[in-house]
Amino acid sequence: MNTKIEKKQTSVESLAKMADIFESCSVSESTKRAYESDWQAFWRFCRDHDLLDLPADPETVAIHLTDMADSGLSVSTIQRRSISISAIHRAAGFESPAKTDRVRRVIKGIKKRLGTAPRQAKALSWPDIRRMVQHCDTSIIGVRDSAILLLGWTSALRRSELVALDIGDLEFVEQGLILTIRRSKTDQMGEGAKIGIPSISNDAYCPVFAVQRWISRAKSRSPSNPLFLKIGASGRNEWFREPEGRLSDRMIPLIIKRYAKFSGMDPNLYSAHSLRRGLATDAGAAGVPERVISRHTRHRSIAVLRNYIEDGTIWQENPLPIIYGREK
Predict the structure, then answer these.
(1) For the domain 126-312, what is the CATH code?
(2) Which CATH superfamily is domain 23-114 in?
(3) pTM of the predicted model over 0.70
(4) Quick check: 131 and 188 in contact, CB under 8 A?
(5) Any idea where the domains of the chain sit in the sequence?
(6) Active site positions, annotated
(7) What would the pLDDT profile of 57-100 be if each residue is shown by its tens digit?
(8) What local confidence, expressed as pLDDT, does residue 99 receive?
(9) In which element (H, E) is residue 33 found?
(10) What phi and psi, each to the nearest 5 degrees, are found at residue 61?
């Protein structure tokens, strides 16, 4: 009898641990890192001012947010910190102090006093990408970076999706390349999506050719192998070097800034999002229908996508050329 009870308890404990694992998978790794960083900042503030951090009083959160505003932090950072504090409290089984009227009013006041439109990374156009790729040499890093820039732009993948690709997620067909995105920021349940990358015949900037050349150079052909691999800085000028595991998504913006600088552009204006934003903007300028763009970029928010499309049509849908023409 005791043995049965012990087995049942063990089974319950095992299921509880599995439930914790499932819960930890409900948010992305980048979100977890943001929660951890924001919570550490809040914890240090509470420690320095002898305040209780968990559970925190709404007034403590209000003072913390005000302190950040006085320190010159952006409105978006302050809002994110509030969300992180709320998430940690809920995870610990406490009511969120950030959801009270007091804290909401403080955030509203901060937005009215300091609020500005968030600074967004500048879009990289297709000519920009081609110019950047010209600076990718024939070393193993240059070949990899060329594939990252060309595939990253034409696929409009988020940086986490780009580095998460495995060889088995690629299918080369007559028309080009079919990518399978198994999980993304807006698809935490892993339903997956497929997008097509057409080949560009006889073009040095063909993304399909660039990816094939990289796979051949990296000698990474097993379906379970990462597509984009980490290579030490010492491999900068080497034709071949043994890879060192999957590339981190934090390297994508560094690669973009590196080649933007080589191309005479201000690297501070660009980030990993410049690739995704760039394709949507160029597509809008070319008159591609919104539904076709959203199918490719997999934007959940049409409002966000529409901002990019409108950026691209700023010259096409402009009243001034008509007015100028009447003056001739």
Answers:
(1) 1.10.443.10
(2) Tyrosine recombinase, N-terminal domain (1.10.150.130)
(3) no
(4) no
(5) 23-114, 126-312
(6) 158, 185, 273, 276, 299, 308
(7) 889 999 888 888 887 788 888 888 888 888 888 888 888 888 88
(8) 87
(9) helix 29-48
(10) -65, -40
